[in-house]
Amino acid sequence: MNSKCLYKQKILIQQLRPEIGEKELYQKIIQLGKELPPLLQGERIPENLVKGCQSQTYLVGERCMGEKDEKILLFRAESEALISAGLAALLIHIYAGESLETILTCPPLFLQELKMDKLLTPNRANGLYSMHLKMKQLALAALVG
Predict the structure, then answer these.
(1) Active-site positions?
(2) Does the pTM exceed 0.85?
């Protein structure tokens, strides 16, 4: 497992853990959603929709070359719901700029640490896992394509 990916998750947990209560954490996630830049008009297409999200959420992966000439993905997202946008921002923070292999093999362990299963409704949790799945699908497509 990629230690950089795990380190980024550890830092994220430390940054969000001071948000002691569930309400504060929820508000922090919403704030992260507000900070996401909007997608370009041409990126809001069915191909970029995240299936399984309660609200319309778009996720775009842009292939680039990393520092060591390895293929990486940069992610951008937009959602009509701020909580979904915030959840996308959390995943983007962890996986953007990571190698394709890391995206495919490094699980989002921070979700358990932050007890997201207790914070989110089942539909929102499903959407979150659908976003992660789409990131992995984009990485796999970039790896084989």
Answers:
(1) 53
(2) yes
